[in-house]
Write a structure and sequence with these properties.
The chain is α+β, with helices and mostly antiparallel strands and 382 residues long. It folds into 2 domains: 65-169, no CATH class; 174-378, MetI-like (MetI-like fold), CATH 1.10.3720.10. The protein is 54% helix and 14% strand. Strands 1-2-3 form a 3-stranded antiparallel β-sheet, with no helix packed on it. The longest helix has 37 residues, at 167-203. The chain is globular. The two termini are 40 Å apart.
């Protein structure tokens, strides 16, 4: 008959319960971070991007060793030289990694050097070799490089600039500044956003209103002009390292309101939850309630926000330096390198001057993919 339900009157027998398999036991006993890592590994593109970023950041520790030339090494005879291709075979015989030398003539009408590949000049590359001297992290003298040109030869894989400096070497050195400025800027933004957003959401009232008005004032300014104004306020007499930290703090101070608003909304939604009230009744202080109980509940959102904020910091530094209001020589960053690409005539004649934009694009995409993977992996409802 429709609507009837039949229940087995026999008691439930647990004597024949199947034991857990090793895989099931490993899953049920895993920590939260292990579960996040297992879910993250299923996102192939995010894993590839993660390893790409890890290798890129690790390379900044040994930039002097990886770069074929020193940062300010000039080759006056090879100004605006085009990129050299690496070959393995010469006239059908295996030679190993080598490049062909250059011959150039001067075009007096266009006042431009015309470079011609000289296929009779074979220049084998040297590895783990002695080359231009440098001070490793400004502390230790050294001259060991991963790859060097042949004795008396050249190796300009990505060409040279208007002073004959190797573009590849300068991009490798610039990665140290451009990548770390994103981390430091996000650290400032994260601390301010989580702290002020948590205070506003937890206490509410007058404190919340005051913080919200500050956020609205900051967000009412256009971002790029605000960056430009604050960067222009830095004293021109400052040392390069102080300018670096000044730009980092500026990027962090401008970027925190968005995160603070998001944290405030989550805190407002959770401060009446049972676990929050239980912590308050047990005598937990507001800082512990926010940091220990509330913030971990929406860690997936914070992770996604941080991973998306880092590329915005890198783009901000690149834009400021490109406009001449950010980092200035002798500091070398990807934005500083792109200042030479401001002249459209130079770009038309020497397109390799735009190569510093390639790592910027790759890093921004990689951070976005990692952010998507971490957000999905840390989502407790995913």
């Amino acid at each position: 008959m429709r609507g009837k339900r039949y229940v087995d009157p026999e008691p439930f027998d647990t004597s024949e319960e199947r034991p857990l398999t090793p895989e099931q036991e490993r899953y049920y006993t895993a920590s939260q971070w292990q579960l996040v890592w297992w879910r993250f590994r299923r996102h192939r593109l995010a894993v590839i991007s993660f390893w790409f970023l890890l290798i890129l950041y690790a390379s900044t520790l040994v930039s002097e060793f990886l770069a074929p030339y020193a940062l300010d090494s000039r080759n006056a005879n090879f100004v605006h030289a085009p990129p050299q291709r690496v070959h393995l075979f010469h006239e059908g015989q295996f030679v190993g990694p080598f490049v062909y030398g250059y011959r150039f003539t001067l075009d007096l009408q266009r006042m431009q050097r015309i470079y011609v590949v000289d296929e009779t000049d074979v220049q084998p590359l040297r590895f783990f070799c002695r080359g231009d001297g440098y001070r490793f992290w400004g502390l230790v003298e050294g001259d060991l490089h991963l790859v060097c040109p042949a004795e008396g030869g050249t190796f300009f894989l990505w060409g040279t600039d208007r002073l004959g400096r190797c573009m590849l070497s300068r991009i490798i050195y610039g990665a140290r500044i451009s990548l770390t400025i994103g981390l430091l800027g996000v650290a400032v933004s994260f601390v301010l956003g989580v702290t002020l957003g948590g205070i506003a959401g937890y206490f509410g009232g007058l404190i919340d209103s005051a913080i919200q008005r500050v956020i609205e004032i900051i967000r009412s300014f256009p971002v790029i002009p605000l960056w430009m104004a604050l960067s222009a306020a830095l004293p021109v007499t400052w040392d390069a390292i102080w300018v670096y930290f000044g730009i980092t703090i500026i990027l962090g101070l401008v970027d925190w309101p968005g995160l603070a608003r998001a944290v405030r909304g989550r805190i407002l939604a959770m401060r009446e939850e049972d676990f929050t009230q239980a912590a308050v009744l047990m005598g937990a202080r507001p800082a512990r309630v926010i940091g220990r109980h509330m913030v971990p509940s929406f860690a997936s959102h914070l992770i996604a926000s941080v991973t998306l904020a880092i590329p915005s910091m890198i783009l901000g530094e690149t834009a400021l330096s490109f406009l001449g209001l950010g980092l200035r020589p002798p500091i070398t960053s990807w934005g500083v390198l792109l200042t030479e690409a401001q002249n459209i005539n130079a770009v038309a004649l020497y397109p390799w001057l735009m190569l510093p934009v390639v790592p910027v694009i790759l890093v921004v995409l990689a951070f976005n993919f990692v952010g998507d993977g971490l957000r999905d992996a840390a989502d407790p409802y995913g």
